Amino acid sequence: MIPTIESRDLAAALDHVRSKEAIADNGLESRQGVQFFTFQDPDGNGLMVVQKVIPKS
Hints:
1 helix, five-stranded mixed β-sheet, single chain, alpha+beta
């Protein structure tokens, strides 16, 4: 299981991770009511940042 971090602003989190030269594997993805991205820390451990998707009414 990959550790997850919740975010209120996923795009800003991805920008921050990339600014630290971390490897953000596939950019933003969406599945099952969440948007997320994965990246590796300096030791090569995988992490996931997620944000719940609020359906538009």
